[in-house]
Design a protein that fits this description.
Order of helices and strands: HEEEEHEHHEHEEHH
Largest sheet: 8 strands, mixed
Number of strands: 8
Helix content: 40-55%
Bound molecules: zinc ion
Strand order of the largest sheet: 4-3-2-1-5-8-7-6
Distance between the termini: 45 Å
Strand content: 5-15%
Number of helices: 7
Shape: globular
Structural class: alpha+beta
Radius of gyration: 17 Å
Amino acid sequence: MTVTSEIGTVIAALRRDVADLHAQLTKYQLVIWTAGNVSARVPGHDLMVIKPSGVDYDALTPDHIVLCDLHGNLVDGDLAPSSDTAAHAYVYRHMPEVGGVVHTHSTYATAWAARGEPIPCVLTMVADEFGGDIPIGPFALIGDDSIGRGIVETLRDSRSPAVLMRNHGPFTVGRDARAAVKAAVMVEDVARTVHIGRQLGSLDRIDDADITALFDRYQHVYGQKPADPQEGEYR
Ligand SMILES: [Zn+2]
């Protein structure tokens, strides 16, 4: 097998994975119309696959998923890449540990972004998944590197795989696209629950030492289980 065909096999598999993962965004009601996108890095190459712009989720197939370089230029595909491609590409260029990026306008997480308020770490599942408060990123206009830069600068100072970009919505990262989708599902879940909790009264943040203990246990102890290490246990 030549190197070229090996890359082709990897890219074909990633196109299938990323097309399938978009169905999770609709399953968990994180997106409406054509908003939202999932991408995956092509491991070992300066390439990524991402949703095309403006294709209905119901019609999305692996053939629609486009291949881009890490500056957002189209390398292979019949459709224009997502309008958020530059942001995804910036994240891959500056966070080599990241293998997947997701963006949605899911309702509750986006409501916190509209408030410009971090989601406080008041539940063990926030500590487990996000390692602390879920941070707010800067306001940024679409069209250049400013969204990507805001994501990277915010996540570098945090253990969270999710950032709520101010006046915009959540972007999530993971070691692969599936992990980034999981973070997108979880951030909406905790955004909703913490919002409801706050309607009942004031909330107490978990102590920093306990947050660290919860995060380390969840990320490292569960993460070393041989069976399906991508699945954390959900308490
Ligand atoms: Zn957006």
